[in-house]
Amino acid sequence: MVAERRAPHGSEGLVGVEEQGMKRKSRKAKGPSRPRRVYSDGHPLDKVHYVESKIILKGNRFTSVDSFREFARLVREAADGVDIDFSRKGFKDALPQIREVLFLDTADFRLYNNAFILRRRLRYEHGFAAGPPEFVFKFRHPDLQKTAEMDVRPQIETNYAIKFKAEALPLKNQIGGVRVLYSHNVEFSFSEESAVDRTPMATLIRMFPPLRSLHASKTDTVKLVNHTAVEEVLLDIGRLNFGKGVKAKANVAVWRTRGDEKPLVGEFAFQCKFQRADERHAVAMKRAERFFLALQNVAKDWVALGTTKTGAVYRLKGNPPQAHE
Predict the structure, then answer these.
(1) Are strands 50-58 and 160-169 parallel, antiparallel or unpaired?
(2) Domain locations in the chain?
(3) Beta 223-224 vs 177-189: how paired, if at all?
(4) What contacts 200, CB < 8 A, 6 or more positions away?
(5) What CATH number does the domain located at 4-22+46-314 have?
(6) DSSP SS3 for 84
(7) Mean pLDDT of the region 263-290
């Protein structure tokens, strides 16, 4: 597997996304530089348990809830074209979910420039906040071994969940291919919002030791990226069945700036979860890749290449950061 490529010709595609990356890295390693298999406390390295496929879409295509349903028809067309089952049963009357998304970083985007992301997300129901904010700290990078070795466990008293994902996206500059990023995430709730927002970097480094590599000064703080709060409108549109027990709920979302409701980007996504590597059946993953490529072509007028949702927020004011995405 390579981090960026055309597919499916001569490619492993979404099959063995974890094993192929590890083997490639291991072949290059000799002697004391062999890949690390445990964290500093002896805990085994986390393994990929999610394969998430994303297609970034043009935000201005989403003008009403009917736009989501229009895209669902394109999903149906692509699925039928490659003999994949796409069921809308139980989803046709679904209502959009509303979430507020904030990104926190230093003024010079030091986290993002070093492949770290710190995000706060808050869900709304009937116009009011529902539950405490959800925070995500992640390291996202095209190198699987480097991403696996990044210990994202927080050093705070809170319940948390680790999610290690292989994220498939289209190529940066053309329709019809696959590139893979690896995202090592920790998700946790934190009721004290002020403990993170506008917080000294020194505090964050105590919470997330990998940030020590950023060499923060005593005066460095994090704040809202580009002074922008994002409103996410997300709609579940159906369920894909790739066979061999591999199914995935599909959704479409649009990100808008809060206040002026300016559309930034949209996204189509589906995610497969696997408890064990042997559940990631090669036949099913090949079918998932065929669908992913087919949808890029069917929906080519909707596709926005060369960005991610996070990247769109960071680039709002021009002067783009040097990201690993």
Answers:
(1) parallel
(2) 4-22+46-314
(3) unpaired
(4) 218, 220, 221
(5) 2.40.320.10
(6) coil
(7) 95
Answer for the pair 14, 286: CB distance below 8 angstroms, yes or no.
yes
**Does the model's pTM come out above 0.85?**
yes
DSSP state of 42: S
> How many residues are present in the chain?
325
**Does the CA dihedral 297-298-299-300 come out positive or negative?**
positive
pLDDT at 3: 41
Bridging pattern class, strands 223-224 and 160-169:
unpaired
| Cis omega (within 30 of 0) for bond into 8 | yes
Report the distance separating Cα 300 and Cα 34, nearest Å: 42
Contact between 191 and 159 (Cβ < 8 Å): no
Identity at 112, one-letter amino acid code: Y
The helix or strand, by DSSP H or E, that contains position 204, with its residue range, turns out to be helix 201-207
Dist CA 79 CA 99 (whole Å): 29
* CB-based contact 74:302 (threshold 8 Å): yes
Q: How many Å from the N-terminal Cα to the C-terminal Cα in the chain?
A: 17
Question: Residue 144: which H helix or E strand, with range?
Answer: helix 144-149
DSSP, residue by residue, 53-121: EEEEEEGGG-SSHHHHHHHHHHHHHHHHHTT-EEE-TTTTT---EEEEEEEEE-TT-HHHHTTEEEEEE
Note the pLDDT tens digit of each residue in 23-69: 445 455 455 556 778 999 999 999 999 999 999 999 999 999 999 99
The CA-CA-CA angle for residues 28, 26, 184, to 5°, reads 120
The tens digit of pLDDT for each residue in 245-272 reads 999 999 999 999 998 889 999 999 999 9
Phi and psi for 263 in degrees, rounded to 5? Answer: -70, 135
Q: Side chain identity at 55, as an amino acid letter?
A: I
The two tokens of residue 37 are 């298999």
Give the residues across from 298 on adjacent strands.
none
